[in-house]
Design goal:
With 417 residues, the protein is α/β, with parallel strands linked by helices. The chain folds into two domains: 304 residues, TIM Barrel (Alpha-Beta Barrel); 86 residues, no CATH class. The protein contains 15 helices and 18 strands. The strands form five sheets. Strands 4-5-6-11-12-13-15-16 form an eight-stranded parallel beta barrel, surrounded by seven helices. Helix 1 links the parallel strand 4 and strand 5. Helix 9 runs parallel beside helix 10 and helix 12 runs antiparallel to helix 14. The protein binds one RNA strand of 84 nucleotides through helix 5, strand 16, helix 12 and helix 14.
RNA sequence: GCGUCGGUGGCGGAGUGGUCAAUCGCACUUGACUGUAAAUCAAGCGGCUUUAUGCCUACGAAGGUUCGAAUCCUUCCCGGCGCA
Protein backbone atom coordinates (compact mmCIF):
# COMPACT_ATOMS: atom_id res chain seq x y z
CA UNK A 1 0.00 0.00 0.00
CA UNK A 2 1.56 3.22 -1.17
CA UNK A 3 0.88 6.35 0.87
CA UNK A 4 0.88 8.55 -2.21
CA UNK A 5 -0.55 7.98 -5.64
CA UNK A 6 -0.29 10.33 -8.56
CA UNK A 7 -2.52 10.46 -11.61
CA UNK A 8 -1.72 12.60 -14.61
CA UNK A 9 -4.82 14.20 -16.10
CA UNK A 10 -3.36 16.08 -18.99
CA UNK A 11 0.07 16.82 -20.39
CA UNK A 12 1.34 20.01 -21.90
CA UNK A 13 1.93 19.35 -25.60
CA UNK A 14 5.57 19.43 -26.54
CA UNK A 15 6.75 20.07 -23.01
CA UNK A 16 7.24 18.27 -19.71
CA UNK A 17 4.39 19.96 -17.87
CA UNK A 18 1.32 18.15 -16.67
CA UNK A 19 -1.81 18.57 -14.58
CA UNK A 20 -2.69 15.81 -12.19
CA UNK A 21 -4.05 14.69 -8.88
CA UNK A 22 -1.92 13.56 -5.99
CA UNK A 23 -3.76 11.42 -3.47
CA UNK A 24 -2.57 11.37 0.12
CA UNK A 25 -3.95 9.95 3.36
CA UNK A 26 -5.20 13.45 4.16
CA UNK A 27 -6.88 14.14 0.86
CA UNK A 28 -6.17 14.99 -2.73
CA UNK A 29 -3.99 17.70 -4.16
CA UNK A 30 -4.80 19.12 -7.55
CA UNK A 31 -1.47 19.72 -9.26
CA UNK A 32 0.34 21.83 -10.14
CA UNK A 33 -0.11 23.31 -6.68
CA UNK A 34 1.55 25.88 -4.50
CA UNK A 35 2.48 24.59 -1.06
CA UNK A 36 2.21 27.17 1.69
CA UNK A 37 5.17 27.36 4.04
CA UNK A 38 4.45 27.01 7.73
CA UNK A 39 7.94 26.42 9.02
CA UNK A 40 7.29 26.20 12.73
CA UNK A 41 3.85 24.66 12.49
CA UNK A 42 2.08 27.88 11.60
CA UNK A 43 1.77 29.98 8.50
CA UNK A 44 3.04 33.24 9.89
CA UNK A 45 0.30 35.76 10.64
CA UNK A 46 -2.55 33.46 9.57
CA UNK A 47 -5.02 31.09 11.21
CA UNK A 48 -5.40 27.71 9.50
CA UNK A 49 -8.95 28.58 8.47
CA UNK A 50 -7.60 31.63 6.68
CA UNK A 51 -4.95 29.53 4.96
CA UNK A 52 -7.58 27.06 3.82
CA UNK A 53 -9.86 29.83 2.60
CA UNK A 54 -7.12 30.95 0.23
CA UNK A 55 -7.34 27.64 -1.58
CA UNK A 56 -4.20 26.26 -0.02
CA UNK A 57 -4.09 22.48 -0.32
CA UNK A 58 -0.84 21.67 1.50
CA UNK A 59 1.33 23.18 4.21
CA UNK A 60 5.06 22.56 4.54
CA UNK A 61 6.69 22.62 7.96
CA UNK A 62 10.33 22.25 8.87
CA UNK A 63 12.12 19.43 10.60
CA UNK A 64 15.00 21.43 12.02
CA UNK A 65 12.75 24.12 13.47
CA UNK A 66 10.17 21.79 14.99
CA UNK A 67 12.90 19.53 16.35
CA UNK A 68 14.39 22.48 18.21
CA UNK A 69 11.06 23.94 19.18
CA UNK A 70 8.89 22.47 20.62
CA UNK A 71 10.66 19.14 19.91
CA UNK A 72 9.50 16.42 17.56
CA UNK A 73 8.36 14.11 20.33
CA UNK A 74 6.19 16.88 21.72
CA UNK A 75 4.64 17.32 18.30
CA UNK A 76 4.05 13.56 18.18
CA UNK A 77 2.54 13.60 21.65
CA UNK A 78 0.17 16.36 20.62
CA UNK A 79 -1.17 14.07 17.95
CA UNK A 80 1.24 15.03 15.19
CA UNK A 81 1.59 18.07 13.04
CA UNK A 82 -1.99 18.10 11.76
CA UNK A 83 -3.63 17.99 15.12
CA UNK A 84 -1.16 20.30 16.77
CA UNK A 85 -1.67 23.08 14.25
CA UNK A 86 -5.29 22.33 13.38
CA UNK A 87 -4.63 21.71 9.72
CA UNK A 88 -6.36 18.60 8.44
CA UNK A 89 -5.32 18.81 4.82
CA UNK A 90 -2.07 17.37 3.52
CA UNK A 91 1.25 18.41 5.01
CA UNK A 92 4.89 18.05 4.17
CA UNK A 93 8.04 18.45 6.19
CA UNK A 94 11.34 19.57 4.82
CA UNK A 95 14.22 17.47 6.06
CA UNK A 96 16.49 20.13 7.49
CA UNK A 97 18.74 19.96 4.45
CA UNK A 98 18.05 23.56 3.62
CA UNK A 99 19.40 24.61 7.01
CA UNK A 100 22.73 23.04 6.03
CA UNK A 101 22.81 25.93 3.58
CA UNK A 102 21.05 28.77 5.38
CA UNK A 103 22.88 28.19 8.65
CA UNK A 104 26.06 27.05 6.93
CA UNK A 105 27.48 28.48 3.75
CA UNK A 106 24.90 31.26 3.60
CA UNK A 107 25.04 32.28 7.24
CA UNK A 108 25.85 35.92 7.82
CA UNK A 109 25.86 36.75 4.12
CA UNK A 110 23.32 37.77 1.55
CA UNK A 111 23.76 34.73 -0.65
CA UNK A 112 20.56 33.37 -2.07
CA UNK A 113 20.05 29.92 -3.48
CA UNK A 114 19.35 31.70 -6.75
CA UNK A 115 22.46 33.11 -8.42
CA UNK A 116 22.00 36.34 -10.29
CA UNK A 117 24.42 37.66 -12.84
CA UNK A 118 27.86 37.83 -11.29
CA UNK A 119 27.12 35.74 -8.24
CA UNK A 120 28.00 32.47 -9.82
CA UNK A 121 31.20 30.76 -8.88
CA UNK A 122 32.64 30.83 -12.36
CA UNK A 123 32.85 34.60 -12.07
CA UNK A 124 34.47 34.56 -8.69
CA UNK A 125 37.99 33.26 -8.69
CA UNK A 126 38.07 33.30 -4.91
CA UNK A 127 35.74 30.36 -4.58
CA UNK A 128 37.49 27.10 -5.17
CA UNK A 129 35.94 24.92 -2.54
CA UNK A 130 33.81 24.81 0.51
CA UNK A 131 36.24 26.03 3.12
CA UNK A 132 37.56 29.23 1.59
CA UNK A 133 34.28 31.07 1.46
CA UNK A 134 32.75 29.86 4.65
CA UNK A 135 31.74 32.75 6.82
CA UNK A 136 32.94 32.93 10.36
CA UNK A 137 30.33 32.09 12.94
CA UNK A 138 28.27 29.85 10.76
CA UNK A 139 26.00 27.48 12.59
CA UNK A 140 26.20 24.36 10.44
CA UNK A 141 29.09 22.05 9.63
CA UNK A 142 28.86 19.21 7.17
CA UNK A 143 30.63 15.88 7.16
CA UNK A 144 29.99 12.51 5.60
CA UNK A 145 27.75 11.37 8.39
CA UNK A 146 25.51 14.43 8.52
CA UNK A 147 25.26 18.05 9.57
CA UNK A 148 26.18 19.43 12.94
CA UNK A 149 24.10 22.46 13.80
CA UNK A 150 24.40 25.01 16.51
CA UNK A 151 20.91 26.09 17.41
CA UNK A 152 20.16 29.58 16.17
CA UNK A 153 18.01 29.94 19.28
CA UNK A 154 20.40 29.07 22.11
CA UNK A 155 23.65 27.98 20.49
CA UNK A 156 23.38 24.36 21.63
CA UNK A 157 24.86 21.72 19.34
CA UNK A 158 22.75 19.17 17.48
CA UNK A 159 23.57 16.63 14.83
CA UNK A 160 21.30 15.61 11.98
CA UNK A 161 22.00 12.48 10.05
CA UNK A 162 19.71 11.04 7.39
CA UNK A 163 18.46 8.52 9.92
CA UNK A 164 17.81 11.21 12.52
CA UNK A 165 16.01 13.49 10.06
CA UNK A 166 13.72 10.66 9.00
CA UNK A 167 13.05 9.67 12.58
CA UNK A 168 12.09 13.23 13.43
CA UNK A 169 9.90 13.45 10.36
CA UNK A 170 8.17 10.23 11.39
CA UNK A 171 7.44 11.83 14.73
CA UNK A 172 6.11 14.98 13.09
CA UNK A 173 3.83 12.88 10.93
CA UNK A 174 3.43 14.75 7.65
CA UNK A 175 2.26 12.54 4.79
CA UNK A 176 5.01 13.81 2.54
CA UNK A 177 8.52 13.92 3.91
CA UNK A 178 11.88 14.61 2.34
CA UNK A 179 15.19 12.80 2.26
CA UNK A 180 17.97 14.54 4.12
CA UNK A 181 20.13 16.38 1.60
CA UNK A 182 22.72 19.07 1.40
CA UNK A 183 21.42 22.26 -0.14
CA UNK A 184 24.45 23.90 -1.70
CA UNK A 185 25.29 27.52 -2.35
CA UNK A 186 25.01 28.98 -5.82
CA UNK A 187 28.53 30.25 -5.25
CA UNK A 188 30.04 26.82 -4.74
CA UNK A 189 32.44 25.52 -7.37
CA UNK A 190 31.81 22.56 -9.64
CA UNK A 191 34.18 20.48 -7.58
CA UNK A 192 32.30 21.22 -4.40
CA UNK A 193 28.90 20.63 -6.01
CA UNK A 194 30.10 17.25 -7.21
CA UNK A 195 31.42 16.31 -3.81
CA UNK A 196 28.21 17.45 -2.09
CA UNK A 197 26.12 15.63 -4.64
CA UNK A 198 27.82 12.35 -3.85
CA UNK A 199 27.08 12.95 -0.19
CA UNK A 200 23.46 13.82 -0.90
CA UNK A 201 23.09 10.60 -2.87
CA UNK A 202 24.51 8.50 -0.08
CA UNK A 203 22.21 10.31 2.32
CA UNK A 204 19.28 9.60 -0.01
CA UNK A 205 19.98 5.88 0.22
CA UNK A 206 20.25 6.08 3.97
CA UNK A 207 17.06 8.16 4.21
CA UNK A 208 15.19 5.65 2.11
CA UNK A 209 16.47 2.72 4.14
CA UNK A 210 15.57 4.44 7.42
CA UNK A 211 12.12 5.23 6.12
CA UNK A 212 11.37 1.73 4.89
CA UNK A 213 12.70 0.30 8.14
CA UNK A 214 9.74 1.86 9.89
CA UNK A 215 6.96 -0.07 8.22
CA UNK A 216 4.20 1.79 10.02
CA UNK A 217 5.43 5.19 8.96
CA UNK A 218 6.16 4.03 5.43
CA UNK A 219 2.50 3.08 5.08
CA UNK A 220 1.29 6.55 6.00
CA UNK A 221 4.06 8.83 4.87
CA UNK A 222 5.57 9.17 1.43
CA UNK A 223 9.26 9.92 1.07
CA UNK A 224 10.54 12.28 -1.60
CA UNK A 225 14.15 12.02 -2.73
CA UNK A 226 15.94 15.25 -3.51
CA UNK A 227 17.84 15.97 -6.69
CA UNK A 228 20.85 18.26 -6.39
CA UNK A 229 23.74 19.21 -8.66
CA UNK A 230 23.70 23.00 -8.63
CA UNK A 231 23.53 24.60 -12.04
CA UNK A 232 25.58 21.90 -13.77
CA UNK A 233 23.86 19.81 -16.38
CA UNK A 234 25.94 16.69 -15.95
CA UNK A 235 25.52 16.74 -12.18
CA UNK A 236 21.80 17.38 -12.35
CA UNK A 237 21.31 14.54 -14.81
CA UNK A 238 23.51 12.25 -12.81
CA UNK A 239 21.45 13.07 -9.73
CA UNK A 240 18.13 12.43 -11.45
CA UNK A 241 19.39 9.11 -12.79
CA UNK A 242 20.73 8.08 -9.41
CA UNK A 243 17.48 8.81 -7.57
CA UNK A 244 15.36 7.26 -10.28
CA UNK A 245 17.56 4.20 -9.97
CA UNK A 246 16.59 3.92 -6.31
CA UNK A 247 13.00 3.43 -7.39
CA UNK A 248 12.24 -0.12 -8.38
CA UNK A 249 8.63 -0.73 -9.45
CA UNK A 250 7.57 -1.90 -6.02
CA UNK A 251 9.33 0.61 -3.84
CA UNK A 252 11.74 3.44 -3.62
CA UNK A 253 10.81 7.06 -3.35
CA UNK A 254 7.21 8.17 -3.52
CA UNK A 255 8.15 11.34 -5.33
CA UNK A 256 11.00 13.75 -5.83
CA UNK A 257 12.16 17.11 -4.71
CA UNK A 258 14.37 19.31 -6.82
CA UNK A 259 16.54 21.36 -4.57
CA UNK A 260 19.64 23.47 -4.32
CA UNK A 261 20.96 26.36 -6.23
CA UNK A 262 20.32 27.61 -9.73
CA UNK A 263 21.30 30.33 -12.09
CA UNK A 264 18.38 32.69 -12.32
CA UNK A 265 18.64 32.80 -16.07
CA UNK A 266 18.31 29.11 -16.79
CA UNK A 267 16.64 27.64 -13.77
CA UNK A 268 13.81 26.30 -15.93
CA UNK A 269 16.22 24.61 -18.26
CA UNK A 270 17.93 22.96 -15.33
CA UNK A 271 14.61 21.75 -13.99
CA UNK A 272 13.84 20.33 -17.41
CA UNK A 273 17.11 18.32 -17.48
CA UNK A 274 16.02 16.63 -14.30
CA UNK A 275 12.37 16.04 -15.09
CA UNK A 276 13.19 14.52 -18.44
CA UNK A 277 14.85 11.73 -16.49
CA UNK A 278 12.74 11.30 -13.34
CA UNK A 279 9.93 8.73 -13.56
CA UNK A 280 6.88 10.36 -14.99
CA UNK A 281 4.39 8.72 -12.68
CA UNK A 282 5.63 10.28 -9.47
CA UNK A 283 5.17 13.85 -8.26
CA UNK A 284 8.01 16.36 -8.45
CA UNK A 285 8.35 19.19 -6.00
CA UNK A 286 10.48 22.20 -6.86
CA UNK A 287 11.80 23.26 -3.50
CA UNK A 288 11.74 26.89 -2.46
CA UNK A 289 10.62 28.46 -5.70
CA UNK A 290 7.71 30.87 -5.92
CA UNK A 291 8.24 33.89 -8.15
CA UNK A 292 5.51 34.14 -10.79
CA UNK A 293 7.85 33.66 -13.74
CA UNK A 294 9.55 30.76 -12.00
CA UNK A 295 6.23 29.03 -11.41
CA UNK A 296 5.42 29.10 -15.11
CA UNK A 297 8.90 27.89 -15.94
CA UNK A 298 8.77 25.15 -13.34
CA UNK A 299 5.38 23.85 -14.44
CA UNK A 300 6.30 23.96 -18.08
CA UNK A 301 9.35 21.89 -17.29
CA UNK A 302 7.55 19.21 -15.39
CA UNK A 303 7.16 20.26 -11.76
CA UNK A 304 3.97 19.52 -9.87
CA UNK A 305 4.50 21.16 -6.50
CA UNK A 306 6.17 24.36 -5.34
CA UNK A 307 6.74 25.85 -1.93
CA UNK A 308 8.20 29.21 -1.17
CA UNK A 309 8.50 31.64 1.69
CA UNK A 310 8.47 34.57 -0.69
CA UNK A 311 4.73 35.33 -0.70
CA UNK A 312 4.50 35.44 3.07
CA UNK A 313 7.87 36.95 3.81
CA UNK A 314 7.49 39.65 1.22
CA UNK A 315 3.99 40.30 2.51
CA UNK A 316 5.29 40.90 6.02
CA UNK A 317 7.96 43.17 4.57
CA UNK A 318 5.48 45.27 2.62
CA UNK A 319 5.96 43.95 -0.90
CA UNK A 320 2.68 43.01 -2.50
CA UNK A 321 1.91 41.13 -5.69
CA UNK A 322 -0.52 42.67 -8.14
CA UNK A 323 -1.49 41.63 -11.64
CA UNK A 324 0.62 44.57 -12.79
CA UNK A 325 3.69 43.59 -10.83
CA UNK A 326 5.01 44.01 -7.32
CA UNK A 327 4.47 47.13 -5.28
CA UNK A 328 6.20 48.26 -2.11
CA UNK A 329 3.37 49.50 0.05
CA UNK A 330 5.84 51.61 2.05
CA UNK A 331 6.34 53.93 -0.91
CA UNK A 332 5.19 57.45 -0.07
CA UNK A 333 2.81 57.52 -3.00
CA UNK A 334 0.55 54.95 -1.37
CA UNK A 335 -0.17 57.00 1.73
CA UNK A 336 -3.05 58.71 -0.01
CA UNK A 337 -3.93 55.99 -2.50
CA UNK A 338 -7.54 55.10 -1.89
CA UNK A 339 -7.54 52.45 -4.58
CA UNK A 340 -7.68 48.70 -4.00
CA UNK A 341 -4.50 46.72 -3.38
CA UNK A 342 -4.99 44.81 -6.61
CA UNK A 343 -7.98 45.68 -8.74
CA UNK A 344 -10.05 42.62 -9.52
CA UNK A 345 -8.54 40.42 -6.82
CA UNK A 346 -11.04 38.26 -4.96
CA UNK A 347 -9.09 37.71 -1.75
CA UNK A 348 -10.38 38.77 1.66
CA UNK A 349 -8.11 41.82 1.71
CA UNK A 350 -9.30 43.09 -1.65
CA UNK A 351 -12.93 42.03 -1.58
CA UNK A 352 -15.67 44.63 -1.21
CA UNK A 353 -17.83 44.21 1.83
CA UNK A 354 -19.73 46.15 4.43
CA UNK A 355 -21.15 48.13 1.56
CA UNK A 356 -17.71 49.42 0.59
CA UNK A 357 -14.60 48.43 -1.29
CA UNK A 358 -11.80 46.24 0.03
CA UNK A 359 -9.04 47.60 2.21
CA UNK A 360 -7.31 50.50 0.52
CA UNK A 361 -3.65 50.89 -0.28
CA UNK A 362 -3.67 53.91 2.00
CA UNK A 363 -4.91 51.79 4.89
CA UNK A 364 -2.28 49.12 4.35
CA UNK A 365 0.39 51.79 4.01
CA UNK A 366 -0.73 53.13 7.36
CA UNK A 367 -0.82 49.73 9.05
CA UNK A 368 2.68 48.90 7.85
CA UNK A 369 4.12 52.23 8.96
CA UNK A 370 2.40 51.90 12.29
CA UNK A 371 3.88 48.39 12.61
CA UNK A 372 0.46 46.93 13.22
CA UNK A 373 0.34 43.13 13.13
CA UNK A 374 -2.77 43.19 10.98
CA UNK A 375 -0.67 44.60 8.14
CA UNK A 376 1.22 41.33 7.83
CA UNK A 377 -2.00 39.38 7.99
CA UNK A 378 -3.78 41.35 5.28
CA UNK A 379 -0.75 41.32 3.01
CA UNK A 380 -0.08 37.62 3.60
CA UNK A 381 -3.66 36.78 2.73
CA UNK A 382 -3.38 38.73 -0.47
CA UNK A 383 0.04 37.46 -1.57
CA UNK A 384 -0.77 33.84 -0.81
CA UNK A 385 -4.08 34.10 -2.58
CA UNK A 386 -2.29 35.63 -5.53
CA UNK A 387 0.30 32.87 -5.83
CA UNK A 388 -2.02 29.98 -5.01
CA UNK A 389 -4.50 31.23 -7.57
CA UNK A 390 -1.75 31.74 -10.11
CA UNK A 391 -0.67 28.12 -9.85
CA UNK A 392 -4.31 26.98 -9.90
CA UNK A 393 -4.87 29.07 -13.01
CA UNK A 394 -1.77 27.57 -14.60
CA UNK A 395 -3.19 24.13 -13.85
CA UNK A 396 -6.51 25.07 -15.40
CA UNK A 397 -4.77 26.45 -18.46
CA UNK A 398 -3.10 23.08 -18.98
CA UNK A 399 -6.45 21.35 -18.75
CA UNK A 400 -7.96 23.90 -21.11
CA UNK A 401 -5.08 23.83 -23.55
CA UNK A 402 -4.44 27.55 -23.09
CA UNK A 403 -1.18 27.42 -21.14
CA UNK A 404 0.97 29.30 -23.61
CA UNK A 405 -1.50 32.14 -24.09
CA UNK A 406 -2.03 32.42 -20.37
CA UNK A 407 1.68 32.48 -19.67
CA UNK A 408 2.36 35.10 -22.29
CA UNK A 409 -0.40 37.45 -21.20
CA UNK A 410 0.22 37.05 -17.49
CA UNK A 411 3.95 37.61 -17.65
CA UNK A 412 3.65 40.53 -20.06
CA UNK A 413 1.39 42.29 -17.62
CA UNK A 414 3.19 41.34 -14.44
CA UNK A 415 6.71 42.18 -15.60
CA UNK A 416 6.03 45.14 -17.86
CA UNK A 417 8.00 48.21 -16.95
C1' G B 1 13.20 90.93 38.92
C1' C B 2 17.26 87.85 41.01
C1' G B 3 19.58 83.09 40.80
C1' U B 4 20.39 78.73 38.16
C1' C B 5 20.42 75.13 34.27
C1' G B 6 19.75 74.85 29.24
C1' G B 7 19.01 76.20 23.69
C1' U B 8 22.73 71.07 18.32
C1' G B 9 20.26 68.56 11.87
C1' G B 10 12.25 66.65 11.05
C1' C B 11 12.14 64.74 16.52
C1' G B 12 14.90 62.83 20.79
C1' G B 13 19.69 63.24 22.19
C1' A B 14 25.66 62.86 21.99
C1' G B 15 29.65 66.14 21.48
C1' U B 16 32.28 70.63 25.32
C1' G B 17 38.92 74.41 21.38
C1' G B 18 41.29 71.20 16.08
C1' U B 19 40.66 64.45 13.36
C1' C B 20 32.66 67.80 13.25
C1' A B 21 28.41 68.46 8.11
C1' A B 22 28.56 66.82 13.56
C1' U B 23 28.14 59.51 17.41
C1' C B 24 23.46 57.19 18.18
C1' G B 25 18.11 56.23 18.16
C1' C B 26 13.49 57.47 15.89
C1' A B 27 11.09 59.38 11.71
C1' C B 28 11.65 59.82 6.53
C1' U B 29 13.31 58.00 1.20
C1' U B 30 14.48 53.91 -1.76
C1' G B 31 16.02 48.88 -2.39
C1' A B 32 16.26 43.70 -1.37
C1' C B 33 13.73 39.29 0.07
C1' U B 34 12.78 32.22 -3.89
C1' G B 35 12.87 24.16 0.77
C1' U B 36 11.88 31.26 6.96
C1' A B 37 18.36 32.58 11.46
C1' A B 38 13.58 37.31 8.50
C1' A B 39 6.73 41.54 11.18
C1' U B 40 13.85 41.20 8.58
C1' C B 41 17.97 43.37 6.22
C1' A B 42 20.67 47.11 3.26
C1' A B 43 21.63 51.95 1.42
C1' G B 44 20.53 57.11 1.70
C1' C B 45 19.09 61.10 4.77
C1' G B 46 22.11 70.24 5.09
C1' G B 47 22.99 72.37 -0.09
C1' C B 48 25.85 72.30 -4.62
C1' U B 49 28.80 70.32 -8.18
C1' U B 50 33.72 68.58 -12.23
C1' U B 51 30.70 62.96 -6.46
C1' A B 52 35.89 64.77 -4.17
C1' U B 53 41.43 63.65 1.49
C1' G B 54 35.80 69.32 -3.27
C1' C B 55 33.12 73.96 -2.30
C1' C B 56 29.30 76.49 0.44
C1' U B 57 25.97 77.19 4.57
C1' A B 58 25.26 75.37 9.51
C1' C B 59 25.10 73.61 16.34
C1' G B 60 19.27 80.24 19.32
C1' A B 61 21.18 85.68 17.53
C1' A B 62 25.05 89.26 17.20
C1' G B 63 29.83 90.43 18.39
C1' G B 64 34.70 88.87 20.36
C1' U B 65 39.20 85.69 21.77
C1' U B 66 42.20 82.13 18.84
C1' C B 67 46.29 79.90 13.59
C1' G B 68 41.51 77.28 14.51
C1' A B 69 34.98 77.71 17.97
C1' A B 70 29.06 73.59 18.24
C1' U B 71 32.78 73.80 22.11
C1' C B 72 35.88 79.84 25.48
C1' C B 73 34.18 85.30 26.54
C1' U B 74 30.34 89.42 26.15
C1' U B 75 25.49 91.09 25.17
C1' C B 76 20.74 89.92 23.56
C1' C B 77 16.53 86.49 22.59
C1' C B 78 13.95 82.01 24.16
C1' G B 79 12.76 77.84 27.64
C1' G B 80 12.87 74.82 32.47
C1' C B 81 13.45 75.13 37.64
C1' G B 82 14.08 77.87 42.36
C1' C B 83 13.44 82.40 45.11
C1' A B 84 10.81 86.86 45.33
Amino acid sequence: MQPLSFQIQKKLPGALGRAGVLSTPHGEIQTPAFVVVGTKGTVKALAPEQVASLGAQVVLANTYHLYLQPGDTRVRDQGGLHRMMHWDKPTMTDSGGFQAFSLGAAFGSNVSKIAKGNDAAQNSEEVTGDELEEPAGKLAKIDEDGVTFRSHIDGSEHKFTPERSIEIQHNLGAEMIFAFDECTSAQASYEYQKEALGRTHRWAERSLAAHKANGDAAQKQGLLGIVQGGRFKDLREESARFLAGLCPPAGGFDGFGIGGSFDKEDMYTAVGWVNAILPEDKPRHLLGIGEPADLFGGVENGCDLFDCVAPTRMARNGTIHTANGRINIFNAKFLDDLGPIDDGCACYTCSPRHGGAGYTRAYLAHLFRAKEMFAGTLASIHNLHFIIKLVADIRQSILDGTFTDFKTSFLARYYRK
